[in-house]
Design brief:
The protein contains 10 helices and no strands. With 295 residues, the chain is an all-alpha fold. Helix 7 runs parallel beside helix 9.
Length: 295
């Protein structure tokens, strides 16, 4: 394709991806207040961690056991729309990821397509694991944060602050869980060797705990320890994968006989014929010699 054709193709793929996210956002907006069989409504899923707080620490209004405060006229609508868009992005992720893949894959070789597809699949799984872990830890983190006042405060979260806190926590956990995949990818292309990772292990683990202390939105010890612990386990898994990969590559070099060569020893490869020596050529007849009168 020409450059203009590539731009048209990019516009087409982005349009389909945006359309898929829009349809998913509509479904998420409706799902916010509707229970689908055994699946609770999206609003209940979002407020359930807050409702797990002890009743003595929560403020109740109009007889409702738990509820978030709306402090602005259109706050409820904007929050419902925001959560619907976030849910739509998650629900339609196969569709818009496929559009991105369809735009990239024509320029890749078969081995590169297989390599990229494996890493994209692992990235989606790791992000989902991080988000699920954040949702599991979220109620405990709220309980710890609410008990800091020593019983002198009651909890009445504003809807915007509560939802932003939860979405930020989900996004940070999901994005942080991509770190081990980055380590494995750098090892596969030869940038990070296992020996370096082994030597840097303690410093990297310390860096993960420092990162978790600054990255968690609430700065509570529960979410910090959960994030740092999960990243440490995934980092150790990535280091072990790098160890197996480097051992396999070293064994392959030994089998091929490359590691047994000294610096002064010539390459075991035989002489390479030139291309023009291997291509048969037709015999060329000699040019006739002409003599002038003087000769």
């Amino acid at each position: 394709m020409s450059l203009i054709e590539h731009l048209y193709e990019l516009r087409y793929r982005l349009g389909l991806a945006a359309l898929a996210i829009l349809l998913g956002a509509i479904v998420g907006f409706i799902w916010f207040g509707v229970t689908i069989g055994p699946i609770p409504s999206l609003g209940k899923i979002m407020t359930d961690p807050y409702c797990r707080l002890p009743p003595t620490t929560r403020v109740s209004f109009d007889g409702k056991p738990c509820g978030l405060l709306q402090t602005q006229p259109f706050e409820a609508f904007s929050i419902r729309l925001k959560i619907g868009i976030a849910a739509g992005i998650v629900l339609t992720s196969p569709a818009w990821l496929y559009q991105i893949w369809a735009f990239i894959t024509p320029g890749l070789y078969r081995k590169e397509r297989k390599f990229a597809l494996t890493f994209v699949s692992c990235a989606v799984v790791l992000f989902t694991m991080g988000a699920v872990m954040a949702y599991i830890v979220f109620p405990t983190a709220l309980k710890v944060l609410s008990s800091v006042g020593g019983g002198q405060f009651v909890t009445a979260f504003a809807a915007t602050s509560y939802v932003s806190f939860m979405l930020n926590l989900l996004a940070i956990f999901g994005a942080s869980f991509e770190l081990p995949l980055l380590v494995v990818m750098l090892n596969m292309i030869g940038v990070l060797k296992y020996q370096k990772l082994k030597h840097w292990r303690r410093g990297m683990i310390f860096g993960l705990f420092v990162f978790a202390a600054f990255a968690t939105p609430g700065q509570d010890p529960v979410s910090m320890i959960a994030l740092a612990g999960g990243l440490t386990l995934l980092l150790e898994l990535a280091i072990q994968i790098s160890r197996v990969h480097d051992r396999r590559k070293d064994q392959q070099r030994v089998d091929e006989g490359w590691d047994g060569l000294s610096d002064d020893e010539p390459s075991p490869l035989g002489p390479v014929d030139r291309i023009e020596d291997t291509v048969p050529t037709e015999p060329v007849a000699p040019e006739p010699i002409s003599y002038d009168d003087a000769t």
